[in-house]
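User: Could you check the structure of this?
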Amino acid sequence: MIITLVEKFPQWQIINLDKLDSCSSLKNLSSVDQRPNYKFIQGDICNPYLINTLFERENIDIVFHFAAQTHVDHSFRWPAEFKRVNVDGTRVLLKAACEAGVEKFIYASTDEVYGESIDKECDEFCPRQPSNPYAASKAAAESIVLSYWKKYKLPVIVTRSNNVYGPHQYLEKVIPKFISLLLLNKKCPIQGSGLQSRHFLHTDDAIEAFLTVMEKGVPGEIYNMGSNFELSIIQLARELIKMSTSAEEDFNNWLDFVEDRPHNDLRYPMNSDKLQGLGWKPCVTWPEGIRKTGWLACNSHTSFNTVISYSHDHISAFVYKMI
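Assistant: Sure, the predicted structure tokens are below.
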């Protein structure tokens, strides 16, 4: 997203705030780090002094808030940390943005706030029924974001997306995790039955969705960013096994069935008609998306030994201003 903003809007100053934990790498932005309209600041959104100083010194017009702890399994083990980052950090950003009078505050949320749905596609009016600490923290943050529109008329917009994949994704996420393990001739861990499914949205489509919301989104509204491409986790593993190995043996030989998480939603079907009404639709096919991801080439600086390591605060938010 930052690369797109820097390249698409050379007349704007793009500011990237990131805590740079183990899941982050500045090498991902090497193509723009010398651009005159790009600035990097290392910092934590939970630090009120840092955030307030940033908004006081910079003439910020628009905030994209992507900062979050996102690993569902970790949220069951460290729920307080998810609350600190996802809820309290959002509150810190909102307060500073409101006092600075920004023109737009875009909050990236998740389809998981809806909870599990077997048959019904969830639109933006469906009740939220989060079923894990991560989803609950995002739902709580959404409520705080929308309250700033109701009380202060801060022009906020909430987006809810399916699982995004693409270049530079950290190893804890399912697609790069499976690929990296397969390249080491190791098995893909399948939680429970593996029949739980997810919709996958390529990062190019996600970026276009955020740009559409930035340009055409209505303050105070929520927009689903959904993909029609759905795979069960076991189907995903088999797809990646075919792509990543030359073995002709039984696919099951590459699967390692492990204990399921305390609760694992079966699927999250979403209706994205509202966002498509603004002119957006997902265009990247699954084969094209995997090819464009080029995961190994994009992550050659990453050690495969970190595949199952714990990533602490994944904190990144970016804001930008017109110059």
